[in-house]
Specification:
Number of strands: 15
Number of helices: 14
Low-confidence stretches: none
Largest sheet: 6 strands, parallel
Order of helices and strands: EHEHEHEHHEEHEHEHHEEEEHEHEHEHH
Distance between the termini: 10 Å
Shape: elongated
Structural class: alpha/beta
Length: about 400
């Protein structure tokens, strides 16, 4: 696996695919700089070597050239985060991009305009990829969030750099962290899978059953399993067409000697609202008109003992509706258990949009071994798929 540490960038122009798809407010100010900060180590290494940097990214889902999706909006913030001036090319192809790239001197940074202003980017157009490739000497992919897409700038472009392509430090870290869970894990291994639907996690569950010792299932998924086992889930979210699948997962887990842990009690509410009446009930006996919205205290106690004895922990999905303060306790408490276990030497990987949002919201991010930057890409790796953006560098 070639990374930026295998290259000396002195006098070279590094063409880096980054994921600067950052949120903007109504005045086009960047409201979360995490993705820019995540690319900083890669850029700093190249500049320190005496190279120059050409940054490629998309922003949003523009339909053609839309000013509100221009990467010009993020130039000042990017410069502030990187601590160096950032030049901007008002196009990512053609004479404007070519001239800006040609004039770039060692130590300088150039940001190209939004790649998705051209449909060729998402179509994986070879000619478009070749045009982008002509701008640099070495191709660096540091965009994990788009590594599962076979787009021109993430996958197709790599063929034009047969000996001069590598992973940036962020993407290398993502691959290493997932390998520490999927291929080089220290036992016991625990996966915590939350979220609302079994259907969105089926392939993940099937792929990791061979790799884990314990699986904690929480969130809305709980109720499909409880219903399948003959429980009454009241008005809780439940995929009635997945009951047989839930039983099959439990059966497969038993065959593989994987211990599945479901909540035993829940915080139930009489409405899906922060000001609803609540009660703690046995997860198998949720009254009609009530719905489970968070894990209960006994469930959390049970989960704690499993987390504290684990050496490798994967967390994907919250235990409750953490967006509402009344139903956030389960997710926060679980996060605190994982943080405590991490402090005692366990390796913890958090991934998937909701769990990442939760650890950031509750200040737990620094206490985890690694927090993934790519929701869809991480899920696909957990499902056992080879991501095209990663394979293109390995080939």
């Amino acid at each position: 696996m070639k990374t930026i540490n295998d290259f000396n960038f002195q006098g070279k122009k590094a063409l880096i695919r980054v994921d600067f798809n950052v949120p903007l407010d109504e005045q086009f100010n960047v409201t979360d700089t995490n993705r820019i900060e995540a690319a900083q180590p890669t850029i700093a290494k190249i500049l320190a070597d005496g190279g120059s940097v050409i940054l490629m990214s998309h922003l949003g889902r523009p339909k053609g050239k839309e000013a509100k999706y221009s990467l010009e909006h993020i130039v000042t913030t990017t410069a502030n985060v990187l601590g160096v001036p950032v030049q901007f090319a008002s196009d990512c192809r053609g004479p404007v991009a070519q001239e800006a790239a040609a004039q770039l001197q060692p130590g300088q940074v150039l940001l190209l305009e939004n790649l998705r202003f051209y449909p060729e980017e998402e179509a994986g157009d070879v000619a478009f990829a070749q045009e982008l490739a002509s701008l640099g000497d070495i191709y660096v992919n540091d965009a994990f969030g788009t590594a599962h897409r076979a787009h021109a700038s993430t996958t197709i472009i790599a063929q034009f750099f047969p000996e001069a392509k590598c992973f940036g430090s962020l993407l290398a870290k993502e691959i290493d962290s997932l390998n520490r869970v999927l291929k080089q894990s220290v036992k016991p291994v625990t996966a915590v899978l939350g979220g609302s639907k079994v259907s969105s996690k089926i392939t993940v569950i099937e792929n990791i059953l061979d790799k884990v010792d314990h699986m904690i299932i929480g969130g809305g998924m709980t109720f499909t399993f409880i219903k399948a086992l003959g429980g009454n889930v009241g008005d809780s979210i439940c995929e009635m067409d997945k009951l047989d699948l839930a039983l099959e997962i439990l059966h497969q887990a038993k065959l593989k000697n994987v211990h599945i842990h479901l909540p035993v009690d829940v915080v139930a509410a009489n409405a899906f609202a922060n000001d609803a009446a609540t009660q703690i009930v046995d997860v198998r006996h949720i009254p009609d008109g009530w719905q489970g919205l968070d894990a209960g205290p006994q469930s959390l106690e049970n989960f704690k003992s499993i987390i504290m004895q684990s050496k490798t922990i994967l967390w994907n999905g919250p235990l409750g509706v953490f967006e509402m303060e009344r139903f956030a306790k389960g997710t926060i408490t679980l996060g605190e258990f994982i943080a405590e276990s991490t402090a005692q030497g366990a390796f913890s990987l958090v991934g998937g949009g909701d769990s990442v949002a939760a650890v950031k919201q509750f200040g737990l991010e620094p206490k985890m071994s690694y927090v993934s930057t790519g929701g869809g890409a991480m899920l696909e790796m957990l499902e056992g798929r080879t991501l095209p953006g990663i394979q293109a560098i390995l080939d």
